[in-house]
Each structure stands twice: as structure tokens, then as C-alpha cells.
Design brief:
Elements lengths: L21 E3 L2 E2 L5 E2 L2 E2 L8 H22 L2 H4 L2 E7 L12 H7 L3 E8 L6 H14 L4 E7 L8 E7 L14 E6 L2 E5 L11
Parallel strand pairs: 7-9
Antiparallel strand pairs: 1-2, 3-4, 5-6, 6-8, 7-8, 9-10
């Protein structure tokens, strides 16, 4: 399948790729450079061709984000934030496949935050379902864990996108799965886990 980037946001038509490079309406590279207080800089990537690959891959994520952000009648009461963006590679580090996918902008994790500032579990599931039905992707993970010190539940959505080459020809596998505490809970299905009210 050939994807057609909007000429305004096509990374191959923009100048040097920086954190200010626009990927979609209202979304720049900076959106994916780390999360919360752990921002990553692009300065450590001196090779322009790698920056451009990252930008092309992240355009697919930017489209997915805008599909939610622009859907005001359905998702106006939540914010979709990047919880795990670009991973800064370290010299001599033994990288996992997940780290490599994050380093090139293929894999990004998102959290869905409600008006109270906490994760909205119901809307997390709704957005995962909405993406499953409305966007193309390689893999979509609905990822839960209770690793917090108080064992409270957290949830995020992982989107794995294919590498976008200069020809913009990509293949999408469209695999879905649900995970709990880094273990596969359900393959081929999204399962909603709700927080215990006790």
C-alpha cells in the first residue's frame, strides 16, 4: 500500500529535521521526544537520513493522534499523550527489539488522561478499539500493569508502525493483542480490564 503524505507535512519536502519539524496539523517531532520530565533531544542524531526515517515513521503516529484529537464529539473529555516516545540509543548498550523500534519512531506508547488528570481506563479501551477499526498499523497493544508501589492499575496503548521508506510503500499487518504485566493475556483480541474500586 502506498501512503500519500500531505505535502505540507511530508518530511522529505521539509528542510533539516529538528524537534520543530511538523508532522501533522498541531504535531511536531517534539511531541514524540520522550515523555513527562524525560525529554530526548535530536542533537544526539547527527545523521540526517536517520532523522528523516524517524520523521517519516512518526507521520503515521501523528495521523493516528489527530484522528483522536480531532474527534471532539467522541473523545473531547480526554487527552491522548505520548507516554513512551523516541528512545535515545546508548553506546554499547545491548538493545532489545522493542528499544530499536522505539529508537526509530516505529513504536510509540500512549496514555489516555481524563479531566481529573488520571488515566481514563474506559476511554483507553475505546480509543484502542477505535484505532483498530479506523487506522492502519503493524501491531496494536492494549497494555495494562499493576507495577505501581500501591499496585494500582495503569494502562497504555502501544502502536507499532512499519518503517516508511522514500517510496512511501508500506505493509500493515494489523495484529492486535492485550498484555498484563508484560505477559500476553490475549492474542488477536482487545480485552478491557477495569480498576478495582475497593
Amino acid at each position: 500500500m502506498r501512503i500519500v503524505p500531505d505535502p505540507k507535512y511530508n518530511p522529505d519536502l521539509q528542510g533539516y529535521i529538528t524537534s520543530k519539524t511538523r508532522l501533522e496539523r498541531g504535531i511536531t517531532m517534539a511531541k514524540f521526544l520522550g515523555a513527562y520530565g524525560d525529554k530526548t533531544s535530536l542533537k544526539y542524531i547527527g545523521v540526517e537520513s536517520i532523522r528523516r526515517i524517524m520523521a517519516r515513521n512518526l507521520t503515521l503516529h501523528a495521523r493516528a493522534m489527530n484522528l483522536i484529537n480531532g474527534n471532539t464529539h467522541r473523545f473531547n473529555d480526554v487527552r491522548l499523550i505520548v507516554s513512551e516516545g523516541i528512545y535515545k540509543r546508548k553506546l554499547f548498550e545491548n538493545e532489545s527489539e522493542v528499544m530499536k523500534k522505539k529508537a526509530f519512531g516505529n513504536l510509540v506508547y500512549y496514555q489516555v488522561i481524563g479531566t481529573n488528570g488520571d488515566i481514563d481506563f474506559e476511554k483507553t479501551f475505546d480509543i484502542a478499539e477505535y484505532w483498530k477499526d479506523h487506522i492502519d498499523f503493524d501491531e496494536l497493544y492494549l497494555d495494562y500493569d499493576d507495577y505501581n508501589p500501591n499496585q494500582s492499575l495503569t494502562a497504555q496503548i502501544g502502536l507499532l508502525m512499519p518503517t516508511v521508506g522514500e517510496d512511501y510503500e508500506v505493509n500493515f499487518s494489523r495484529k492486535i493483542s492485550t498484555w498484563f504485566n508484560n505477559s500476553l493475556m490475549k492474542d488477536g483480541e482487545l480485552v478491557e480490564i477495569v480498576e478495582d474500586d475497593e
